[in-house]
Amino acid sequence: MSALDPWLLERLVCPVTRTPLQYDETAQELISEAAGLAYPIRDGVPVMLIEEARRIDGRT
Fold it and tell me: What are phi and psi of 7, to 5 degrees?
């Protein structure tokens, strides 16, 4: 498991809310608290597609 490039993390935002993301290294996900979504990181590449995101915190 590799760490996400800090330069990239500073520039990525949630495609729904345009807010900064939090990196969850253990789960290999980028978390958008504002949207209640977790975007997967596959083979070191963030997948920033809304349809690929996992819902968090029970939002509908």
Answer: -60, -45
